[in-house]
Structure formats: C-alpha cells, structure tokens
C-alpha cells in the first residue's frame, strides 16, 4: 500500500506522463460548494489534475470539480505488455454502508491530447502548479479578483451547508421523532448528536457573514471579524465530532433491518435531498469544521496586508486551527476511555463512583510518601492523577503488580502549594521535595514527598496541566456521554470475561499494550522550558496492566 505522499506523487507522475487516470469512488462525497464534485461510492471519476496533495480536480460525465484525494489510495501493479495498465485503489477509510471494490484505470492510449488539455485547465485557474494549493481563478487575475473568488466560494459553501443542516434536521430528525415505534430518545441523541444546536449556531453565523458580504465588490468584504465574534460557538462541533463514531455504529446496527433502510430512503425522497445516504449527510459537519482553516488560509493568501480585513483573517485562521486541533485532542481522549475503564477494573476493592463519571484522561502517575494531617504518619502510595481527581492505591505486599483502592482526592476542592525543604509548620516534621494539597473550604491538608527534586517538579507541572485541561473542557462543554460510558463498560466486561478477572481473586493482567497514545503535554515557561511528558510503553517483556497504562516518561523536544 502507498502512503498519502506516495499516492500523490504516483498519480501526479502518471497524469504528467500523459496517462488518462480514472478512479472509482469508494466513499460518498457530499458537496458543500459549487466547485466540488459530488459522487456516490462506485462512480468512476476521471482525474484531470492531482498536483494538490489534498484535493484533486476530476470529471464525471460533463461535470468537473474538486474532490478529496484522501478517499483513495493507489497501489500500482507491474505494467502489462498491452498499452493499458491497471492500478488498484484501497480506501483510506471503509464506508459504513457500502462494501465496494475500488479500481483505478490508467489508459495510455490516445494520451497525446491530454497534456495540452490539462495545461489549458491549469491556466484557466483550476490549479496553480507552482505552490501546491487550490486556486480559484486565473493566475493572471489581480489579487482583488482572486480574493473576491475566495470570498464568493466561502459564501457559496456556507449557503450549501445550511441547506444540508436543514435537510438533516427537518428531513431526517423530525421524521424520526414521529416514529416512536422505531426510535427512542437515546438512539436519536446518539445518531444526531447536537445537530440542531449546530444548525441554530450556523444560521446566526451565516446571517452575520451576509451582513459583511459586499455584493458589488466582494473583495472588500470583511468576514474575518465574524469568525472572531463566533469563535466560542464553534466549540459545539467538538461534541458532534466526538459523538460521530458512535452515531455510525448505531446507524450500522439499525441498517441491518430493512425497515430502517427503507425509512431513511423515504425521508430523503420526501425532503428532495440529493442521492446520498444518511451517513454521508451526518458526515458534513465533521468535514465542515475541518475545512474552515483551509478556506481561511486561502483567503489570507490573497488578502493584502494593508487590507482592513487582513489582521482579522489572520487571527481567525489561528482560532480555527486551534479549534480543530482541540477537537482532535478531545477525540483522542474519547478513543482511550476503554483503557481507563479497564484500568479501574484491574484495581481491587474499588469504592464509589467510576473514574469515567468525572474524568477522561490520565495525566500523571507515580509513587509518593503521603502524610494526612490528622494522623501525621507517612504512608507509601501509588497516585494516579486524572482530570478532576487524584486516586490513591496501595501495592500488594507480596504481589507488587496488584493494586488496592485506598481513596481519592477531589482536585476541584484543593489548591496545590509548594513546600520549602526543612521543618514544616503544619505537620511539625522535616520535609524534602514536598508539596501540599490544601482544601479550599476547610483546614484539611495533605503533604506529599517525592524521592527526587525532579519528580516533585514533574508533579507540580502535572497539577498545573490538570487545572488547565479542566478549564478548557468547561469552556467547550466536553464530557463523556452515557452511551460512551456504557460502551466502555461493555468492553471491560468482555475483556474481564475472557481473562477470568473478578473481584475475589487477583486479576490476570492482559499482555503489555500501547498505553494512552499521543498523550503529551507542554508545560508552562515558569517550570523549565522545552520539556514535555508523554506516555511510553514499557521496554520490559511482561508488566502489570496498570504500569503499562500509566508509565510516563519525560523527553526533550
């Protein structure tokens, strides 16, 4: 199989060599702009230009337009003696409700006229071969005209997108609510998520865009401030994107019943929607939020620095890139909740609420000496810092790979304070490499002692990161849905059943596996610059699950 980079170069080389390239679609593509090419899985697309690595220019019958290159992957077979070569393509992601075989044909017959034809298309503004990016107009046009083209494209895209959202809400969701014999409220929440909130937000956003749109001179439009004014509203896409995989799974189960296939098709026909399956429509918000940075980057490229909109567009681009980055980070966290639930199942004598009731991320872990004020006696414990809570565990005296639950501390109710080496006034003991957790509402204090100064600094950074994560989650309304919690619990039950784990006997840990991947955090400048933490897998052959789950290793950038 080829990587995306290899696919880009191979296809581009074939077209540049005069070959006629035809690709069979393996994913329904719902368009949101006039210049995009709509197709269904199985449609054959003539690839006219593949110079841009993300979007290709293609043709179906007499219609031309952009389509995402990431929907296909090229894997060439050795050339045949004949004049025709065949290339097979595998989809990057398999469509939910189609099971298609994809092929790409490269025909070297009658290729002489193709290069000249392609050159003409490039000159007409389909692609600028010098900068590897989409261009919407002739390179000979001045910057104002190019900016006008991009503005018009953004406005057209928004209007099409509003139509798709309306079709989902009125064509599908409203009809589903009428059929209480087929759908319950939980199912509809999983399938459609917060699509109605997105529809309402997007209508307000488009209204403001229309006010800023200069019909007579589009290049004078100032749309950057609209993105900045609505930047907090775009966070509602986080919930939808996080829920999308669950929506696909729920739809997949329903589609096994022919009644639901016929029902959704009847909804589509009644609303007079384009011939795309419901999963294609539900994908459009995910596509849309990812497309904003691309559009704004294109707009900034053709906005002169002296233009009144320049600094606003630049700021909007930074904002939307941050939104998509944070949405991806939240998505990663949700994909790892199974491992958190599995970790909890491996801890014996668990009491109280499940970790997932309040937390979604393991931030740091390690062994510390702990003194709780009323007792004043030092105890060795293993601590797991999640968002919102710090869990205390004790190792088994004989089997050190077994953990027992010993309590938790609600981080929302405590402040973290540094402790100076020497005699501590609160505990009347000598401390070194220590820090404290002080209750905000009472005089309750916990003191923790690390073995080394470096470990103390790591813990202080981790606590800072925990508060930062909680604040960001509150800002965007990030939380784990009840459906996702149930799915995680089901996964744990399957694992424990296979491994024979129960609460009465020591758990049989699964073999070492990747811990929560990509979980690294940048630390603040006041706590040693340039150092971040990431989860790393144990290099030893066999280790307890909780060690693989929790081991963190610092590294330099």
Automatic annotation (TrEMBL):
Q: Where the protein is mainly located, per its record?
A: cytoplasm
Q: Where is the PH domain?
A: 361-468
**GO cellular component terms listed in the entry, alphabetical order:** cytoplasm; postsynaptic density
Where does this polypeptide localize?
Cytoplasm; Postsynaptic density
Under PROSITE patterns, the record lists: DH_2, PH_DOMAIN, SH3
- Start and end of every SH3 domain? 18-77
Q: Which residues form the DH domain?
A: 146-330
> Zinc: is it a keyword of this entry?
no
Q: What does this protein do?
A: Acts as a guanine nucleotide exchange factor (GEF) for CDC42. Promotes formation of GPHN clusters.
Entry keyword set? Cytoplasm, Guanine-nucleotide releasing factor, SH3 domain, Synapse
List, alphabetically, the Gene3D superfamilies matched. Dbl homology (DH) domain (1.20.900.10), Pleckstrin-homology domain (PH domain)/Phosphotyrosine-binding domain (PTB) (2.30.29.30), SH3 Domains (2.30.30.40)
This chain belongs to the protein called Rho guanine nucleotide exchange factor 9
Q: Which residues form a coiled coil?
A: none
GO MF terms here are: guanyl-nucleotide exchange factor activity
Q: SUPFAM superfamilies of this UniProt entry? A: DBL homology domain (DH-domain), PH domain-like, SH3-domain
Write down the InterPro entries for this protein, in alphabetical order.
ARHGEF9_SH3, DBL_dom_sf, DH_dom, PH-like_dom_sf, PH_domain, SH3-like_dom_sf, SH3_domain, SOS1_NGEF_PH
Q: SMART domains given for it?
A: PH, RhoGEF, SH3
**Assembly state and interactors?**
Interacts with GPHN.
């Amino acid at each position: 199989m080829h990587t995306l980079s290899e696919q880009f170069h191979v296809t581009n080389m074939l077209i540049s060599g005069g070959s006629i390239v035809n690709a069979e679609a393996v994913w329904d593509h719902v368009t949101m702009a006039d210049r995009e090419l709509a197709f269904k899985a199985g449609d054959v697309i003539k690839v006219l230009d593949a110079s841009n690595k993300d979007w290709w220019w293609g043709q179906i019958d007499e219609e031309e337009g952009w389509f995402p290159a990431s929907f296909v992957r090229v894997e060439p077979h050795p050339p045949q003696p004949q004049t025709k070569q065949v290339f097979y393509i595998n989809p990057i992601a398999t469509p939910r409700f189609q099971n298609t075989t994809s092929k790409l044909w490269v025909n070297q017959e009658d290729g002489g006229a193709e290069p000249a034809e392609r050159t003409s298309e490039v000159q007409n503004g389909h692609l600028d071969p010098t900068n590897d990016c989409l261009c919407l107009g002739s390179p000979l046009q001045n910057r104002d005209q190019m900016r006008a083209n991009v503005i018009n494209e953004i406005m057209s895209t928004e209007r099409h997108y509003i139509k798709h959202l309306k079709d989902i809400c009125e064509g599908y969701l409203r009809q589903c609510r009428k059929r209480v014999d087929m759908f319950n409220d939980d199912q509809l929440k999983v399938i459609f998520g917060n699509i109605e909130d997105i529809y309402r937000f997007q209508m307000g956003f488009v209204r403001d865009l229309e006010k800023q749109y200069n019909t007579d001179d589009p290049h004078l439009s100032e749309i950057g401030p609209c993105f900045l004014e609505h930047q907090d509203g775009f966070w509602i896409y986080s919930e939808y994107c996080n829920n999308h995989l669950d929506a696909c799974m729920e739809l997949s189960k329903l589609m096994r019943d022919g009644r639901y296939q016929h029902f959704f098709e009847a909804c589509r026909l009644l609303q007079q929607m384009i011939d795309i399956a419901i999963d294609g429509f539900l994908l459009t918000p995910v596509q849309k939020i990812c497309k904003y940075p691309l559009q704004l980057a294109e707009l900034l490229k053709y906005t002169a620095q002296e233009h009144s909109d320049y600094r606003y567009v630049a700021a909007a681009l930074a904002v939307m890139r941050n939104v998509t980055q944070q949405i991806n980070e939240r998505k990663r966290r949700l994909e790892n909740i199974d491992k958190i639930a599995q970790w909890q199942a491996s801890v014996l004598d668990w009491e109280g609420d499940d970790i997932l009731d309040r937390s979604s991320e393991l931030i740091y872990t390690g062994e510390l000496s702990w003194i709780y004020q009323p007792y004043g006696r030092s105890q060795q414990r293993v601590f797991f810092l999640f968002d919102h809570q710090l869990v205390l565990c004790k190792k088994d005296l004989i089997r050190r790979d077994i953990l027992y639950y010993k309590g938790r501390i609600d981080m929302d109710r405590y402040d973290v304070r540094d402790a100076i080496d020497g005699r501590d006034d609160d505990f009347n003991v000598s401390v070194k490499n220590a820090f404290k957790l002080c209750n905000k509402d009472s005089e309750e204090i916990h003191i923790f002692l690390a073995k080394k100064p470096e470990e103390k600094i790591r813990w202080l950074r981790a606590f800072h990161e925990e508060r930062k994560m909680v604040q960001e989650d509150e800002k965007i309304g990030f939380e784990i849905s009840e459906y996702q919690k149930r799915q995680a619990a089901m996964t744990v039950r399957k694992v424990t059943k296979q491994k024979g784990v129960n609460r009465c006997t020591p758990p049989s840990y699964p073999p070492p596996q990747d811990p929560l991947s990509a979980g690294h955090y940048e630390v603040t400048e006041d706590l040693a610059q340039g150092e971040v933490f990431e989860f790393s897998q144990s290099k030893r052959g066999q280790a307890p699950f909780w060690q693989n789950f929790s081991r963190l290793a610092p590294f330099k950038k």
